[in-house]
Design goal:
The protein is of the alpha/beta class and 221 residues long. The chain has helices spanning 2-13, 27-38, 55-69, 91-102, 122-134, 142-145, 149-163, 170-183, 187-200, 205-217, and strands spanning 21-25, 45-49, 77-83, 108-114.
C-alpha cells in the first residue's frame, strides 16, 4: 500500500522531495523498525516512538543483532524514544536495541528517553526531537557560515546530497553577508556575497536591498 498507492499519490498531489521520513508510535514504531530492517530504501529516516519491541519475543531486536553481526544493517537515519512504560515489557528490548545501534558506527542513530511522559503524551515531544536528530546536518551556525562563501557553498552541497533536495537557504547567505558587512567591515566581500545572493534568488527583493546596502556602505552609489 505504501509503495504502490500512498507514496505515489502524495508525490502527485503535493510538492514533495525524495527524502522521506517515517514516524510511528507504539505498534507503528515497531512497523517502522521492521521496515528499516526489511525494506530500508522505502524511507530515508525513521522515527520510532515507544516502539512495541516486546512483540514476538523481541524478534526485531534479534533481527537487528543478526544484521549488525553480519555487517548488513542498512545505513539509514533512526531515532528511537521511550516514555515511562513501567510494567509493559518495553524497557528491556528498547535498552537492548539502543545498545546494539550505538556500537554500530555506520548508522545515523539517536535515542532519547522521556520519563516524565506516558505512552500517549510522549508522541509530540518524541517527534520534535526525532526530526531534529534526523535533520541535524541541515543547520549552519552563524559562526561557521561567517567563515566565508566557500564554507556556505560546501554546506549547500552537503545538504543537497544528504537530504536529496535542490535547496539553498537564504538565511545562510544573509548571515555571511551581514558578518562581512557589519562585523568585519569587508565591503568587497559583502558585495560579493550579496551578488551571489541575487544570482541564487533573482526574484527576491531582499537580495537587491542587501546588495544596495553593501554598496552604500562602500559609497558605491
Amino acid at each position: 500500500f505504501l509503495t504502490s498507492e500512498l507514496i505515489p499519490y502524495i508525490n502527485k498531489q503535493y510538492r514533495t522531495v525524495d527524502f522521506k521520513v517515517f514516524s510511528g508510535h507504539s505498534l507503528g514504531g515497531l512497523f517502522g523498525i521492521h521496515t528499516l530492517l526489511t525494506n530500508p530504501n522505502l524511507f530515508d529516516g525513521y522515527i520510532a516512538v515507544s516502539p512495541s519491541l516486546w512483540w514476538d519475543n523481541e524478534r526485531l531486536v534479534e533481527d537487528s543483532k543478526q544484521l549488525i553481526e553480519e555487517n548488513k544493517l542498512p545505513n539509514k537515519r533512526l531515532f528511537v524514544s521511550l516514555a515511562s512504560e513501567e510494567g509493559k515489557g518495553m524497557e528491556n528490548p528498547y535498552n537492548t536495541m539502543v545498545s546494539l545501534f550505538e556500537v554500530n558506527k555506520k548508522q545515523h542513530f539517536d535515542s532519547k528517553e522521556f520519563p516524565e511522559e506516558d505512552h500517549i503524551t510522549v508522541v509530540l515531544q518524541a517527534n520534535y526531537h526525532g526530526l531534529k536528530a534526523i535533520f541535524k546536518e541541515w543547520s549552519l551556525s552563524f559562526e561557521e557560515g561567517a567563515k566565508g562563501i566557500d564554507v556556505v557553498k560546501a554546506h549547500h552541497d552537503k545538504v543537497k546530497a544528504t537530504y536529496k533536495v535542490n535547496f539553498t537557504s537564504e538565511s545562510w547567505i544573509i548571515n555571511l553577508g551581514n558578518s562581512e558587512l557589519y562585523n568585519k567591515k569587508r565591503f568587497d566581500k559583502a558585495i560579493e556575497v550579496f551578488e551571489y545572493y541575487t544570482q541564487l534568488f533573482p526574484k527576491t527583493a531582499y537580495s537587491y536591498f542587501l546588495l544596495a546596502k553593501a554598496q552604500e556602505e562602500k559609497e558605491e552609489f
